[in-house]
Amino acid sequence: MLRRIVNHAEFQSFLKATRSCRVPHFFVPVLPEQEGCFAYGITISGKTGAAVQRNLLKRRIKAWFTTNSNLLTEGIKINLIARKGACELDWTKLSNELTGLVSQLSRLEQQ
C-alpha cells in the first residue's frame, strides 16, 4: 500500500532519521513505518525553482510513485528533499533517479 505524508508532525519526525540515501538531485532520510505500508513525503524549497516548476516536479514525483508502487519496499517511510537542479529534470531523468533511489532503499533494508 502507498501513503503520502502530509502531516507536519510526520515531516518533523525525519529530523531524527539515522539512515538516508542520496541520488544526484534528492536527499532522502529513511524511517521505519509502523503501519506496514510505504509512505513518502515531498519537500521542495523555493531555492530549487519557481512555483510552477516546483508544482510540476511534485506532480511528476506523485505520478511516478503511483505508477511504480509495485517496486516499493513496504514498512518504510521516506522524505524526498529536492536539491538544486531537480526542477530542470525531464520525465526520463527523474524516472531514472527515482528508480535508482528505490534500488538503494531495497539494499538499505536488506542490511
Please tell me about this protein's structure:
This protein has 111 residues and is α/β, with parallel strands linked by helices. The chain has one domain: Ribosomal Protein S5, domain 2 (2-Layer Sandwich). 39% of the residues lie in helices and 25% in strands. The chain contains three helices and five strands. Strands 1-4-5-3-2 form a five-stranded mixed beta sheet, covered by helices on one side. A hairpin with a 2-residue loop joins strand 2 and strand 3. The model has no long low-confidence stretch (mean pLDDT 94).
User: What is the helix/strand order?
Assistant: EHEEEHEH
* Uncertain residue segments: none
Describe the strand arrangement of the main beta sheet, using strand numbers: 1-4-5-3-2
> Which architecture does the CATH hierarchy give at level 2?
2-Layer Sandwich
DSSP strand count:
5
| Share of helix, binned | 25-40%
Strand content: 25-35%
How far the N terminus sits from the C terminus, by CA atoms, comes to: 23 Å
Number of discrete domains: 1
CATH topology group: Ribosomal Protein S5, domain 2
Q: Structural class of the helix and strand makeup?
A: alpha/beta
CATH class category: Alpha Beta
How many helical elements?
3
Radius of gyration over all CA atoms, rounded = 13 Å
Q: Averaging pLDDT over every residue, what do you get?
A: 94
- Main sheet characteristics: 5 strands, mixed
